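Tutorial handout. Part one gives the primary structure; part two gives the three-dimensional structure as tokens.
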Amino acid sequence: MSDAVIAQREPFAVEVVKGNKYFWCACGRSKNQPYCDGSHKETEFTPVGFTAEHTKTVYLCGCKRTGKRPFCDGTHKSLEA
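Part two.
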């Protein structure tokens, strides 16, 4: 699998609503970051769906390299500039 496009080198802080379903962009090509807009269709990537367990701010990975997809795990701090 090729590497995803780095959308940004920090997490996206987004408000999610309990019970709502979201689709995180895994390819990095979406124009609607951090959410999927279908731009992955010509790649091997697929979006990662999740349902919010609480209404709160969450931090979704912007570098697309996290080990806790779709949430940021700090991997962006170790990426080369």
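Part three, for discussion. The two ends are 22 Å apart (CA to CA). The CA atoms of residues 22 and 50 lie 5 Å apart.
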